Structures are given as structure tokens and as C-alpha cells.
Automatic annotation (TrEMBL):
Single annotated GO MF: holo-[acyl-carrier-protein] synthase activity
Protein name from the UniProt record: Fatty acid synthase type I helical domain-containing protein
InterPro entries: Fas_alpha_ACP, FASI_helical, Fungal_FAS
Keywords, alphabetical: Transferase
Domain Fatty acid synthase type I helical: 151-288
PANTHER family assigned to the protein according to its UniProt record, in alphabetical order: FATTY ACID SYNTHASE SUBUNIT BETA (PTHR10982:SF21), MALONYL COA-ACYL CARRIER PROTEIN TRANSACYLASE (PTHR10982)
Limits of the Fatty acid synthase subunit alpha acyl carrier domain: 53-107
Protein origin, superkingdom: Eukaryota
Upper classification of the organism: Eukaryota, Fungi, Dikarya, Basidiomycota, Pucciniomycotina
Length: 288
């Protein structure tokens, strides 16, 4: 076996197996006795080679395989064939790139290896599809027919909503009735305000408006306010005779007053003590 180097630009037909039809040979002269005797040996040689190649490829072949039809031979070989490529076929495939392909062609033959991947043609297809879609003109419709179609669709949707509301035992006009009632109430109040303004004037209405603002309200929930409240309660409890004995609660209140005392509390209680008349009784003198 010899290796033949082919050129892609010159030997296109040989690379792609594009051979021209051969001219039919002239009729051979009738065989003589010597040639007739030698022909069985010549025919038997290719048959023996094919049988040996099949045996090397499939492992075992039935007896007299050369005399069996191809259909029966294939069915018989299928029973013992494992599906893997044999030694003989592997050798032929390995020699194929070197003998029939260009010099730089060394890619192994595999399933679909010579097929162009689809993603390479995706860009070409997208470009062609986009150009075709952009070049196409828009659909031409009649504006009046389109508006009629929209109105029919809106009417159909309204009918469907009415059916669903009837199934739910609701009335679609409840919202309109509530709006009419609120509007009538609003107009009644507005008429009353207009009559009052007409009778008393605009300055009167502005003068009777509330001036309270929640943001301006003062809150006295603080420790210095509660200590004044506690001290004042103990002062009047002494005057009115409710505080007679000193127990743990009274001691706890005194400690709270001492801990929260400040100059404002001292001035506050000093004012009450200065205005207490000790001549009114023993409790006043005790409180002072």
C-alpha cells in the first residue's frame, strides 16, 4: 500500500470521489480451454479474502457463508455481533485519513464530526430572518372596523361581568347608588354652611373654628411632674388626717421624692408651706 498526497485545488475529484463513468470495455473473446480452467482459482481468491475479513471482524461466521444470501448471512451474523468495530475495520479506518485525505487532515472520524454545528449557522439565520421581518410591511386594517371590533369586545366583557355578579348575588349599580347618596349628603351640608355664612358672615365662621393642634399639646408625663404630684398628695394627706402612721409605703414615697428632688420642687413646696396657717390646728402645724 502506498501513500498518495493530493492537492485541494488540483485534485478535487479524487478527494471527493467524483470519478467519471468508465467506458464499457469491448467484448472479450470467447474463453479457451486454458483460461476456463484458470478462472475458478481467480474467483475463489477474493471470496476467501472476504470470508477471512468477515471472520476477523465478527469473530465467528456460519459454515459456507460465501454461498448464503446476504439477508440470511446478515441475520446469522447479527446474533453473535456485539456492536463494536472489529480489528479489521479499525485498521481500515485508521489508514483512511493517511491514504485518502489531505496531508494536514488528521481529524478522527466520529459520528457527525464532519457536519457543521448548528450554532455556526444560527447567526446567519437570525440575520436573514430579521431582515425578512423588517422588510415586510405592516398589516393594513380599516380603522372603523377596528373600533367596532373593540366595542364588541367591551360589550362582551361587560356581559360576562354581569353574569358573574348575578351569580354572586351582587348588583353592579351599588357603587353608583352609594356615590349618589354621598353626593346628596355633601350638597345638603354645603347648603347649610352657605346659609350660616350668609347669615353671620365669613369672619364669624372663621372665629368659631377649633384652634386645638395636637402637635402643640403639652404632655406632663415626666418624672419632675410626678414628684410634685406625689409631694402635694402627701402634704394634703397630713392636713386632712389621712396620713397618721409611717409605714413602708410612706417611706418608699419619701425616698422617691428625695431621689427626684430639684430646686423647682423645693420652691414649689416652700410656697405651700409659707401659705399654710399653723393656727388652724394640730395637723396644719404638723404639715408645716
Amino acid at each position: 500500500m502506498t501513500r498518495e498526497i493530493l492537492c485541494i485545488s488540483k485534485n478535487i475529484k479524487e478527494i471527493h470521489y467524483e470519478y467519471e463513468d468508465k467506458v464499457e470495455a469491448k467484448a472479450a473473446p470467447p474463453p479457451t480451454n486454458e483460461s476456463a480452467a484458470a478462472s475458478p482459482a481467480v474467483v475463489a481468491a477474493p471470496v476467501a479474502v472476504a470470508v477471512s475479513s468477515a471472520q476477523a471482524e465478527f469473530g465467528s461466521i456460519p459454515d459456507k457463508a460465501e454461498e448464503m444470501p446476504l439477508g440470511e448471512l446478515g441475520a446469522a451474523l447479527q446474533l453473535s455481533y456485539s456492536g463494536a468495530i472489529g480489528k479489521d475495520m479499525s485498521a481500515l479506518i485508521s489508514r483512511l485519513p493517511g491514504s485518502k485525505m489531505p496531508g494536514r487532515f488528521a481529524t478522527g472520524i466520529r459520528s457527525g464530526g464532519q457536519v457543521v454545528p448548528r450554532f455556526r449557522r444560527a447567526g446567519v439565520w437570525r440575520g436573514a430572518a430579521g431582515a425578512a421581518g423588517g422588510s415586510a410591511g405592516g398589516a393594513i386594517i380599516n380603522l372603523e372596523e377596528f373600533k367596532k371590533f373593540q366595542q364588541s369586545q367591551d360589550a362582551f366583557v361587560s356581559q360576562q361581568l354581569e353574569v358573574l355578579l348575578q351569580y354572586l348575588k351582587q348588583d353592579s349599580r351599588d357603587g353608583y347608588r352609594l356615590h349618589d347618596y354621598k353626593h346628596a349628603d355633601y350638597m345638603r351640608v354645603q347648603d347649610e354652611l352657605d346659609s350660616i355664612q350668609k347669615e353671620h358672615g365669613e369672619n364669624y365662621l372663621k372665629g368659631i373654628q377649633p384652634v386645638f393642634d395636637p402637635l402643640k399639646a403639652r404632655h406632663f408625663d415626666f418624672a419632675w411632674n410626678w414628684v410634685q404630684q406625689t409631694a402635694l398628695e402627701m402634704f394634703f394627706d397630713i392636713i386632712y388626717g389621712r396620713l397618721k402612721t409611717v409605714d413602708r409605703d410612706i417611706t418608699a414615697k419619701c425616698l422617691v421624692i428625695m431621689n427626684r428632688a430639684n430646686p423647682a420642687l423645693l420652691d414649689y413646696m416652700q410656697y405651700y408651706l409659707n401659705h399654710t396657717d399653723a393656727s388652724k390646728g394640730e395637723r396644719y402645724r404638723l404639715a408645716k
